[in-house]
Amino acid sequence: MGFSKIIPPKIAQKIMNGVFIASGIVTLLILVLILGYILVKGLPAFNLEFIFGNPIDSGKEGGIFPMIVSSLYVTLIAGLIATPFGVGAGVYMVEYANNNRIVRLIRFGAETLASIPSIVFGLFGLAFFVVFLHLGWSILSGGLVLAIMALPTIFQVSEVTISSIPNSYREGSLGLGATKWQTIYKVVLPAAIPGIVTGVILGMTRAISEAAAVMFSVGASIQTPISIFDPGRPLPLHLYMLATEGISLEKAFGTAAVLVILVLIITIVTNLVVDRYQRKIMGK
Amino acid sequence: MQKKKKLVEYLIEKGLFITAIFSIVIILIIFIFIINEGIPAISEYGFLNFIFGMTWAPSDSQFGVFPMIIGSICVTLLSLLMAVPLSLLCAIFMAEVAPDSVRKVLKPVIETLSGIPSVVYGFFGLIVIVPLIREQFGGTGFSMFTASLILTVMVLPTIISVSQDAIRSVPSEYREASLGLGATNWQTIKNIIFPAALPGIITAIILGMGRAIGETLAVIMVAGNVPLIPGSIFDPLRTLTSNIALEMGYATGIHYSALFTTAIVLFIIIIVLLLVAHYFQKKYSMDAYGGHA
Amino acid sequence: MNRIESKNLQVYFGDNHILKGITTEIPKNTVTALIGPSGCGKSTFLRTLNRMNDLIPNFKKEGEVLLDGDDIYSPRLDVADLRKKVGMVFQKPNPFPKSIFENVAYGLKIHGHDDKEFIAQKVEESLKSAALWNEVEDKLDNSALGLSGGQQQRLCIARTIATNPEVILMDEPCSALDPISTTKIEDLIQKLKKEYTIIIVTHNMQQATRVSKYTSFFLHGEIVESNFTDKIFVEPKEQKTEDYITGRFG
After folding, report:
1. How far is B89 from chain A (nearest CA, A)?
2. Which residues of A touch B89 (CB under 8 A)?
3. B87 with B33, same domain?
């Protein structure tokens, strides 16, 4: 069992306490270092022209407005498509599925989907949406690829949340003569909303951060996309191109900072909203 | 009325069923398309030649991905070697040792780390770590070690948060029983809590591994991307994922197909790793319950 | 001589004032029962005696608890040493997910014993004292989780006595067990009281009369009455005690 004979337990405890605290500090430092560096270097690039301007000379000068629009656009499409499928599947698994083999198969499918590398989604997007379905390089193609990537996250979080709703809620509603769907729609889902929203946001942050999956499906256009059939260039892809093609370090830092701030805002706002809703339904 | 209600309920159930099997349908379509696009390269070049070939030179119709297989495995293992000890210590610290106030600081730190886009990590590596490695260890700075460092940071939050959940779900009765016998906190963690949480911790490591092996652009930005087997950790390398992303933009014909075949190889490796991991998971979850309950 | 003394013990969990000035004495090598309705503080008091409450965030205490005259909350005292001396059996049987043998050996190993023969002998002794040996001697390597609830609880008692404690705290040890298992544990308590000071929290007043020599009645965080068990149940001095034992509230 590996009980140490050399170091007395009380001293081992003191040593390990030191090691544990050090590990926490190292983790904290990594975040502070990376985030601090990106923000400090990126903030000088910030001004209205950068946020709302168009890029000039492939991004060497000017702003990143079309990229911000592209990012939000593909993420929104991904969320709109993946949410009904992810939540629907979660509801089915908890409330309806009674065949163990199908349950296992569906869960296995979601796990496999979650473990596919993003670049493979990128390949698939190119072969299926862009070429096979003739959607071309477009916001829609990119959004569809990201929807598939966000799907397992939304599904898994929804399933866990819905299955944690106490059975007494369901019995209470069914006992009043409500149908199964009425019970789910009026009782189960409202109680599960905070968890579901968290799952959707998790899926959408994954989508907004993604570059590899969209690099062959959304194009690289620096025009502001208007229709879903227009090509675009989401922020992460823009950052990748600025950095690897050596276009502009200053603009790359600025883009990285915008991306990080965007993700931070989404996470913080969702946490606050979910927290408030949770308190409201719990009557506090 | 009653009939209409029943019909609605029936339609809803079927609708939800369709959403549920959607994942499986998607998986199948993905497999079919990737394999279908990869077949021309396999039939022309031969699958074994493809896997064990040492040279990747599309202009000479040489499509050997063996160096990339080694590259992917090397960066993944090296990053896990660094990430696993740190993340497990941090997870135990958060779940068992730290007071609530410290935990409240660390939790959002972990969440933020996991939310930072991978391209940003790659960019940080390119600007900060690559020059640092170049100065300290010579060479170009683009290397297996640099890539592994970046991947380490990227898999930390995954391993920490999942193993933390596993540790927290160990029943507190075990903890109380051990402390009640006069065990120190560390003895309790080492002998009772860690073994009981081991299956969950292995899951955490598998997920981290999946993230490391699948990461593409962050690795491209710092690994040097030379399609050769690295001789030391300071040599550059190319991973399977990088291979696809680097060349897809301009590949045509058999070269295009070969990149899909690369994805097939990636699939196979991931499936093998998952199977190995599941085996260990099963083995240790038996041990945790006394071998033969 | 009194083994444990508490002097004006106050316990708070955050803003909740749980124990409001407990002053009592618990004598050596006998069984003392703590009775009272749910939420009266009897379990909290018990868990103060081996500092298990330290695990609860925002636990705060005032007053003193003395074991053989020494303050167990003294900063110089080591909690692990205290818990070795003051063992505990919990409400729900909580064997580790390890083999039967390893469960009993665990305490010995963490306290630095590594002589295999000594450990094996001590495990056997403890299982015999806990009246479990005959049922498990040929399956010591099996998982403890395969035992029945009553067997698991006796295993937990064996695990506790293996480390040679002086005091054993029992927190409603039979509340999760069937009547036959309960009888076995009660018989065991009778046997153990010769060597150990036992303090048992129980909801079951018949159990208190069957196993204990002394009884303290807790209500709203105070001790209403302490006396010989046969006195307190036959002629309680306090009206509240009488109300409780005759089932008028609780």
Report:
1. 6
2. 19-20, 23
3. no
pLDDT tens per residue across span A4-17: 456 888 888 899 99
Residues contacting C199, CB < 8 A, separation 6+: C4, C26, C31, C32, C33, C34, C46, C49, C167, C168, C169, C170
Q: Does C78 sit within 8 Å of A10, measured CB to CB?
A: yes
B186 → chain C, closest CA residue: C110
Residue in A196, A166, A161 with CA at minimum distance from that of residue A183: A166
What CA–CA distances, in Å, run from C111 to A223, B181, C97, C115, C130? 71, 9, 20, 12, 21
**What kind of architecture, by CATH, is found in domain A48-281?**
Orthogonal Bundle (1.10)
Residues B113 and B29 in one domain: no
> Please, are residues A169 and A191 in contact by the beta-carbon 8 Å criterion?
yes
Domain that includes residue C220, residue range:
2-245
A55-79 pLDDT, tens digit each: 888 888 888 999 999 999 999 999 9
Q: Decide if C168 contacts C87 (C-beta within 8 A).
A: yes
CA–centroid distance for B247 within its chain: 23
User: Which candidate from C90, C110, C156 shows the least CB-CB separation from B187?
Assistant: C110
Chain A residues within 8 A of C78 when measuring between CB atoms: 10
pLDDT tens-digit series, residues C105-117: 999 998 888 899 9
pLDDT in tens, A215-257: 999 988 888 999 999 999 999 999 999 999 888 889 999 999 9
Do C94 and B99 count as a contact with CB atoms less than 8 A apart? no
Nearest to B181 among C55, C107, C141 (CB): C107
Give the domain range for residue B35: 2-51
Q: Distance, in angstroms, between B94 CA and closest chain C CA?
A: 15
> Per the domain annotation, does C112 fall within a domain?
yes
Inspect the interface and report whether the beta carbons of C110 and A5 lie closer than 8 Å: no
pLDDT tens profile C61-95? 999 999 998 899 988 888 888 999 999 999 999 99
Q: Does B268 touch chain A (CB under 8 A)?
A: no
Residue C250, domain member (yes or no): no
Q: What is the pLDDT of residue A5?
A: 58
In this prediction the ipTM stands at: 0.90
